[in-house]
Write the structure tokens for this entry.
Amino acid sequence: MQNLIKNDAVTEDAWRLIRSEDESYDAAEDVILPLAAWLALDPAARSGQTAVWLAPDADLTVLWPALAQLPLIAIDFPAFTDGRGYSLARLLRERYGYQGELRAIGDVQRDQLAYLARVGFTVFAIRDDRPAEAALDGLRDFSDQYQATVLQPEPLFKRRTQR
């Protein structure tokens, strides 16, 4: 995946995204598996790192026991207009306290990046038909936000009264 933005830069991806439970992969590869495949996985059979990707309707409670061991969680955006992934990310960060890499995958475009970062995403897999270099500016579309977010837990009115 070459359209990956991480740490405010376009970078190469060390992980392989496995979209289907039937897709094969090497035991030594670092892979991001669909939730069902990840739940059925025997960790002893792998030498590479294993992460999970979630559909927008995923039940986060099944991840609770393993959150601390997951180096990466990816959330799929099957369509630009499907915003359920924003809620999953915010829940993972604020309610479940997930500290690892949170990656947006699927139909991810420049216009979403600032909002995705606000809810806790740290890595963005831009659609293959869009240049990631051009999408980088999407992270800087707004200099400040009014609402409380994962990036800025205090809303603007509280920050202003504290000055």
Notes: The chain has a mean pLDDT of 89. Helices lie at 35-40, 84-95, 113-118, 132-135, 156-162. The chain has one domain: 4-162. The chain is about 20% helix and 20% strand.
